[in-house]
Specification:
The complex is a heterodimer. Chain A is of the alpha+beta class. Chain A has helices at about 35-50, 135-140, 150-155; strands at about 15-20, 60-70, 80-90, 95-105, 110-120. By secondary structure, chain B is an alpha+beta fold. Classes of the chains: A alpha+beta, B alpha+beta. The interface of A and B includes residues 34, 35, 64, 67 and 69 of A.
């Protein structure tokens, strides 16, 4: 089962520049596979904080990761700066599936791409809650065009 | 596909204890999602080196991560010791897929399940290469 992941820049709706760090490289001189997920975490949370008003310190609602995936195509290495592309693949009532591409500066093809599924829960009870309106509005802005859940099922 | 909630430690023939560290917890008081992949990597790399004979420093052909996935079922947190379980799910010509589960201390059902795909690559040409026979034998044993 291979889901289609967008691999070029034009498929993403929001970008964040991320400076790689010395400690991102492993002994092979490339960014370690685990670190890509730290870039995923960064682009998603920066977007929610800046565009959706997520309050990570005191907000009643928090996002919890339920599934993440990454496909590694080309190596990255410190000291290059990378860009993380983000879009929303599926927006549910309590959950959202982000699609993420990691790009080298000036390259159109993603070095890696993957997805990240967040469920929004009450900070105290951990029960799933509807996505807060300001966050939903922000997520609507970066929704992938022309993909309904029905189309996805047909494929 | 087996319901991941029904998987138990015995479903994974190769296991490794991993003590969590204080800094694994994020500001929500649980191990951050990224760190689960650090644990995945630890059990995969240890298996590759100790059981499959992989020598990343000296071998010209060695495994590289091409895809990883994790499903988070319940939180883990410092100071518990996590048990990582590994078995081989699929052996291809040049790639191997490991199924991995992480178990929290005293928990029967996994806190997380996922997979890790390694492809053998020639470090000079960066082309994929067949799995070496010794590694293939090791994978068959934990299938």
């Amino acid at each position: 089962m291979r889901d289609e992941l967008p691999a070029t820049r034009d498929r993403y709706r929001h970008f964040l520049a991320i400076q790689t760090r010395w400690s991102d490289n492993d002994v092979y001189g490339h960014v370690n596979n685990v670190t890509y997920y730290s870039y995923f975490d960064t682009v998603v949370n920066c977007f929610l904080i800046a565009e959706g008003g997520l309050d990570i310190q005191a907000g009643k609602v928090i996002g919890v990761a339920v599934e993440t995936m990454c496909r590694f195509r080309k190596p990255l290495a410190y000291p290059e700066a990378v860009e993380a592309g983000l879009r929303v693949g599926k927006l549910g009532n309590t959950s959202v599936r982000y699609e993420i591409g990691i790009f080298r500066a000036g390259e159109d093809e993603a070095a890696a791409s993957g997805h990240f599924v967040h469920v929004f829960v009450d900070r105290d009870t951990s029960a799933p809650v509807a996505i807060p309106a300001p966050i939903r509005r922000a997520l609507e802005q970066i929704k992938a065009p022309g993909r309904t859940s029905r189309e996805k099922r047909r494929r | 596909m087996t319901d991941p909630g029904k998987l138990r430690r015995d479903d994974f023939p190769y296991r490794m204890s991993i003590p969590t560290r204080w800094s694994d917890n994020d500001m929500l008081g649980h191990v951050n999602n990224v760190l689960y992949y650090r644990y995945f990597e630890a059990v995969v790399v240890r298996f590759q080196m100790q059981e499959a004979g992989v020598d990343w420093v000296n071998d010209r052909v060695s495994p590289q991560a091409v895809e990883t996935l994790c499903r988070f079922h319940r939180p883990l947190s410092f100071p518990e010791t996590v048990e990582a379980g590994l078995r081989v799910e699929r052996i291809g010509n040049s790639s191997v897929t490991f199924a991995i589960a992480l178990f929290g201390e005293g928990q029967e059902a996994p806190a997380a399940t996922g997979h890790f795909v390694h492809v053998f690559v020639d470090s000079g040409t960066m082309k994929s290469q067949p799995i070496p026979a010794s590694a293939r034998r090791a994978y068959e044993k934990v299938r």
